Amino acid sequence: MNKTFRIAPSILSANFATLGQEIKDVIASGTDIVHFDVMDNHYVPNLTIGPLVCEAIRPLTDAIIDVHLMVKPVDRIIPDFAKAGADIITFHPEGTEHIDRSLSLVRDLGCKSGLVFNPATPLDYLDYVMDKIDMVLLMSVNPGFGGQKFIPEMLKKLTEARKKIDAYTEKSGREIWLEIDGGVNPENIADIARAGADTFVAGSAIFKNSNDADPNRYDSIVKSLRDSLAAA
From CA 59, how far away is CA 162, in angstroms rounded? Predict the structure, then answer.
C-alpha cells in the first residue's frame, strides 16, 4: 500500500523577522502543512506565539495550518485559533479537565481535532475518544523547546499508536493521521515512517538556513526528507 507522507515545517524554528516569506518559501519547497507551536509558559516552560500571528499568516498560504496547543487550560484559547484560521487544533490530555468536551469544542468550531502525547503520557486516553479525533501527535522530545534530539524509544510508541489507529480505521472506515514531532531529520525519518508515522514535523532540520535570502534554500533539505521517506 502506498502511504501518503506529509511534511510539516515547524515555524517555531523560522526567522520571525521575515515569517511571512519564510512560510511562503518553505511551502513552495514541497512541504504540506504549517505547524504552529503555541506555548504558554505555564504548561511548558516557554512562551511563543498566539492567535494574532495565526491570523496574520492565514492569508499567505492555502496550506493546512496545524496548531499544537501546549497550554493549560485549552478551552479558553481554542475558539481564538479557530477564528484565526487554524485547520487542525491539537492539545495535550493534561491541558483539560474534560478531554471529550475539548475535542468536541474544536470540531464544533469547524476544525479537525487531535490529542498530543508527551513521551511519558500513556496512549490509553485514545481508547475513549477515537470517534472525535482526526490526528494523533506523538512528541518525540519533551515539549517546550526546539532543537532537541529524537528519543529512540518513541519508535515503539509509534508502532503502538499505529495499531490502535489501524484497528479503529478498519472498524469505522475513518482515517486518522499519525504525526511525530521532535528531532526529525533525513537520517531518522525513514525509521520513523516504518514505525507508523505519516505526518512529520521538522523545525531546526528545515529552518537552519533561515537567514539565507535564496527563495529556494529549503528545496534541498525537503528533497532529502522526501528521498529518505521514499526508502521507507
Answer: 34
Cell, residue 23:
512560510
Preceding amide of 73 cis, omega within 30: yes
Hey, which residues are catalytic here?
37, 181
List C-alpha distances in Å: 167 to 92, 149, 180, 192: 22, 30, 19, 20
> Any bridge partners for residue 139, and if so which?
181
The domain defined by 6-230 folds into TIM Barrel (3.20.20)
Per-residue pLDDT tens for 139-162? 999 877 666 899 999 999 999 999
Determine the Cα–Cα distance for residues 93 and 95; give it in Å rounded to an integer.
5
pLDDT above 70: residue 9: yes
Q: Could you tell me if 121 and 99 are in contact, meaning their C-beta atoms sit under 8 angstroms apart?
A: no
H or E element: which one contains 179?
strand 177-181
CA gap 159, 19 in Å, rounded = 35
d(CA 82, CA 231): 37
Classify 138 as helix, strand or coil. strand
Count of C-beta atoms within a 10 Å radius of residue 199: 23
pTM, 2 dp: 0.96
pLDDT score for 1:
43
Identity of the residue numbered 118: N
DSSP state of 47: B
